[in-house]
Amino acid sequence: xxxxxxxxxxxxxxxxxxxxxxxxxxxxxxxxxxxxxxxxxxxxxxxxxxxxxxxxxxxxxxxxxxxxxxxxxxxxxxxxxxxxxxxxxxxxxxxxxxxxxxxxxxxxxxxxxxxxxxxxxxxxxxxxxxxxxxxxxxxxxxxxxxxxxxxxxxxxxxxxxxxxxxxxxxxxxxxxxxxxxxxxxxxxxxxxxxxxxxxxxxxxxxxxxxxxxxxxxxxxxxxxxxxxxxxxxxxxxxxxxxxxxxxxxxxxxxxxxxxxxxxxxxxxxxxxxxxxxxxxxxxxxxxxxxxxxxxxxxxxxxxxxxxxxxxxxxxxxxxxxxxxxxxxxxxxxxxxxxxxxxxxxxxxxxxxxxxxxxxxxxxxxxxxxxxxxxxxxxxxxxxxxxxxx
Length: 389
Description:
Strand content: 15-25%
Shape: globular
Structural class: alpha+beta
Radius of gyration: 19 Å
Number of helices: 10
Distance between the termini: 24 Å
Largest sheet: 6 strands, antiparallel, barrel
Number of strands: 19
Helix content: 10-25%
């Protein structure tokens, strides 16, 4: 295990936001009824269609074989599966080729949020912009748990960011990825996105678009691709999430359970590291620094380079009736959505405490949800479901 140096000094205090990693080569539950936790599963792996998946598709008038052969591109409201129990994400071998990954767009509709710096509930002054800094290369040595989430939407292929997180019920063998709710579900006006894949340490050596034309597969996806076979997000995001976040933004989080497209090793074993999730972070005034990691894809970025921002967090209230969000200065844009926010806990160890949800069109700051009881319920549900597997 390789220990990486502290990354910054913020507000006069050292923020130990170092990641550790090992270098390595490529390599029928019912949905919860609670509105705070919506769970979805995809019971299809490989190129085939399982009986459970076929049953779900047929219920919605979709021929399973047609789905496998391209019907998933049909976004008609009658076939765009919305409910938690209806999520399907069978592996389509070879779908996410390097060129398709490069062409995936950022979900800019969520990042182009309104300016919520007005006095709604508890809102601190808008932070000064913090220029996003490129992560050190290669990524597998400096930030191996961070990667990109690819998915298909009615607007085409899209991209977010995500983080490998520890699974209490599978110590050392986690297959869990933390990202934003809007990276898996369209919110109040839509349904589940499709072909959701996580690629840790994407573009490991930070190559340009031109250089990637001749890059080896292990340079683009050093650990391979991991398909989501089960997803959770909040009921509040499904009910209230909108194109600019809306009142669903404070609940804009998701946990993916993934399986490798090739191989049998767990995600954590493959990557060599995972971050714990802290659902009991202290008050914002007691946090000296938070770091946000991700792959910004909207201009002036191109989605190929991992970046990070470090700042002392402030508070942002979307509505007096919803939880206050974290906010930091950061120039990252769309595509960084879902990327993990990290801070030191009381034990001095790094933990994930939030994820990028919204930001203004001017790209001067980012906001992420506070991970409280609802987020913990979702996470625990996922861990329990796959205990010992």
